[in-house]
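Students often ask why we bother encoding 3D structure as a string. The short answer is that it lets us treat folding as translation between two languages. Here is a chain of 282 residues written in the first language.
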Amino acid sequence: MVRSVQQLRSDVACARAAGRRVGLVPTMGALHEGHLSLVQAARDECDMTIVSIFVNPTQFGPHEDFDRYPRTMERDLPLLRRVGADLVFAPDRQTIYPEGFSTYVDPPAVGQPWEGQCRPGHFRGVATVVLKLFNLAGADVAYFGRKDYQQARVIQCMVEDLAVPIAVRVCPTVRESDGLALSSRNRYLDADQRERALALWKSLLLARQLVQGGERQAESINGRMQQRLIELGVDRIDYAALVDPVTLQPVARVQQRTVALVAAFVGQTRLIDNLEIEPCSS
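And here it is in the second language, the structure alphabet:
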């Protein structure tokens, strides 16, 4: 594990001098099998795999869970050794945001709806820290999970708009056997909440079932998703919507590949999920 920028850059420079392809997996720690699948994807494609662990304060709102977000470094490091990560970069706050830091990345348009409205400033913090990690690590490829679909689109657009010399890979969501998407925040859930959290996945499956059954009106499907979420016990819904997979703007009719997005609270825990839906050919 390295904490200094100088050591990180030295190690990456040695890898590059040897002609090695470098992959980066940015995380906030509290690792689960979803994160480890990203590490494996990086190992499959690259010669050197870097995992960053940094709980980024600027992507949390004033009343969100920054202070209680799980910090499990002693558990995370053995997991990363097990899957073969070559280097763990774990900077402190001063390294990423030194005294006087005042430059932030304004997120692209794709970050304005949904999470952008529900968590003001969130994607500003995400885009800023990710761009800084890209600059520090100098990797060839970066790996992100599809569960955070809108975040992945924000990063893809930022890379394209700012001509950042890195490829972005978005890897499949990893789920429990009953469909619950893996998330570091799942550990907040008690047994009852864990069961109710399945409402997100079941609402997405309902949306897919309706589309494949011939329903095309997004308003009707969105309403059915929200109804299913309520029936299965979520405490609050932020959104349940069908959107264009590129722009993330809401669609009126499902005529081509569409993404269903959902965000809801179970107890005090906010969870998100998504599912790509293809209408059946007529």
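Translate back mentally: The beta strands are 22-27, 48-53, 87-89, 141-145, 167-171, 236-243, 258-266, 269-277. Keep this in mind for the problem set.
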